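Risk register update: the risk of archive-format incompatibility is retired. Evidence:
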Amino acid sequence: MSAQSEGEYAEALQNYYEAMRLEIDPYDRSYILYNIGLIHTSNGQHTKALEYYSQALVRNPSLPQALNNMAVICHYVRLFIFFQNGILSIEF
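Archived output:
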């Protein structure tokens, strides 16, 4: 987690992929998948993030932070589409 907190996302991803290779407990794997989702969210890779949050929830349905992050991404993407298509606008 140190690499992730320091913004070294590529290194953190490699560490998490290695942890996934070694970890067999589904509960612990759910948190690894969740953390991979966090990195993809931070990198703006929302589709990948959603995939990892979903995989985390399959292994641990009691992971509310994954559900919350999925909802935030869906809300953000929907707002982006609305602004892009001129459905919403902001006036200052």
